[in-house]
């Protein structure tokens, strides 16, 4: 067999920036073996549980959450109760110093549990912060007799769409359908202004060493790393495995903001934002822990509805993060989207996408505190 040539550095970097082809002979066979099946197994396992609480929780752990940290821990109490805790070791102190986004992620988990339980005919008597804000997030008692939530059908189909959108305007009937879930922005002048804000905000996060490092520290590059640690920010696909194995993608390179690989990432994100025809956002009148949990519940329902409508969604909330380097854009975003005293809790890009993929998850058993 003729030896296969290694990809050149120039060609590899071009591929990484554009994300279009894998320039290596034998790439088809290589690519087919790069799916991190172990890390993605919880998506297929969710329907395999028969015990009602475990079945609902197996769906809940598929909920969106910041940096895919999966900051939930579960305690099974008696025969019908679940106590949900926050894993305080899974936080983002540089970009989320007040843990606001972490609590929003916990709200997504809670709501997906409630929705999944309803699909099996179980209602949940939910008490948030049963022992105060420093205790468990929620106590949930399962009882028979619920009507299935129509959004339950979308739980296993909901994925974050981080790629290019078609640029096609969001259909008016879709906008109307989302009116009960979020504020939707389609006005060209306003969407243009928001695109500039989210583009600048992401660059600030990526060009600030301490916030960039927070992301790089939880970056999982290629199949082996993703399967070993099925959380954090995954670089999933043959191109990333090739980059990891060939030394063209390392933590050091990802921290080097002058490196061509880094610039390629910036350019691709800029192109993604430029393709965005609409944005959605959520606000609250105050900014309590309860507000943050409820925001997560609303965001989760909105994302399931967006999935039902055949649209893509990606959170782009960097501009509303509370750290010093983002202060100016935080103020600008609130002036644009919020009334006096309100807090913008979440911001996302909306459009017709093509790159919604499953993200890794820890199995349910790894999250149950009293699992035997």
Please specify the SSE layout and strand pairing:
Blueprint: H1 9-18, H2 27-32, H3 37-45, H4 52-60, E1 72-77, E2 81-86, H5 100-119, E3 122-128, E4 138-144, H6 172-178, E5 183-185, H7 188-207, H8 209-216, E6 219-221, H9 222-228, E7 233-235, H10 238-246, H11 251-255, H12 260-274, E8 278-284, H13 289-308, E9 312-315, H14 327-337, E10 343-351
Parallel strand pairs: 6-7
Antiparallel strand pairs: 1-2, 2-4, 3-4, 5-8, 8-10, 9-10
Helix pairs in contact: 1-12, 3-9, 4-5, 5-13, 7-12
Describe the structure.
The chain is α+β, with helices and mostly antiparallel strands and 372 residues long. It has a domain at 38-157: NADH Oxidase. The protein is 42% helix and 15% strand. The protein contains 14 helices and 10 strands. The protein has helices spanning 9-18, 27-32, 37-45, 52-60, 100-119, 172-178, 188-207, 209-216, 222-228, 238-246, 251-255, 260-274, 289-308, 327-337; strands at 72-77, 81-86, 122-128, 138-144, 183-185, 219-221, 233-235, 278-284, 312-315, 343-351. Strands 1-2-4-3 form a 4-stranded antiparallel sheet, covered by helices on one side. A 4-stranded antiparallel sheet has the order 5-8-10-9, with helices on both faces. A two-stranded parallel ribbon has the order 6-7. Strand 6 (219-221), helix 9 and strand 7 (233-235) form a beta-alpha-beta unit. The model is unreliable at 1-9 and 11-25 (pLDDT under 50).
């Amino acid at each position: 067999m003729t030896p296969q040539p290694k990809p050149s550095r120039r060609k590899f970097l071009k591929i990484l920036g554009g994300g279009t082809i894998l320039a290596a002979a034998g790439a088809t066979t290589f690519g087919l073996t790069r799916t991190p099946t172990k890390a993605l197994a919880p998506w297929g396992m969710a329907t395999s549980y028969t015990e009602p609480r475990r079945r609902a929780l197996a769906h809940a752990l598929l909920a969106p959450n910041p940096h895919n940290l999966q900051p939930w821990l579960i305690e099974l109490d008696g025969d019908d109760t679940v106590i949900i805790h926050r894993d305080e070791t899974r936080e983002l102190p540089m970009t989320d110093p007040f843990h606001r986004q972490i609590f929003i992620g916990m709200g997504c988990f809670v709501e997906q549990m409630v929705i999944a339980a309803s699909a099996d005919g179980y209602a949940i008597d939910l008490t948030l912060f049963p022992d105060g804000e420093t205790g468990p997030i929620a106590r949930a008692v399962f009882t028979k007799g619920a009507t299935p939530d129509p959004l339950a059908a979308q739980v296993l189909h909901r994925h974050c769409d981080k790629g290019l959108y078609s640029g096609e305007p969001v259909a008016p009937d879709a906008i109307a359908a989302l009116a009960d879930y979020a504020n939707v922005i389609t006005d060209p002048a306003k969407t243009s202004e928001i695109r500039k804000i989210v583009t600048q905000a992401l660059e600030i996060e990526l060009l600030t060493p301490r916030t960039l490092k927070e992301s790089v520290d939880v970056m999982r590059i290629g199949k082996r790393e993703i399967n070993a640690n099925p959380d954090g920010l995954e670089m999933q696909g043959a191109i990333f495995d090739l980059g990891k194995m060939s030394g063209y993608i390392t933590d050091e390179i990802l921290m080097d903001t002058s490196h061509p690989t880094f610039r390629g990432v910036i350019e691709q994100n800029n192109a993604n934002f430029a393709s965005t025809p609409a944005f959605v956002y959520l606000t609250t009148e105050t900014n309590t822990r309860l507000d943050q949990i409820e925001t997560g519940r609303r965001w989760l329902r909105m994302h399931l509805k967006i999935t039902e409508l055949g649209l893509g969604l990606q959170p782009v909330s960097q501009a509303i993060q509370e750290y010093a380097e983002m202060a100016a854009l935080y103020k600008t975003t609130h002036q644009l989207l919020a009334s006096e005293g309100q807090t913008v809790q979440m911001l996302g890009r909306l459009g017709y996408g093509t790159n919604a993929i499953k993200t890794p998850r820890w199995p349910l058993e790894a999250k149950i505190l009293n699992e035997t």
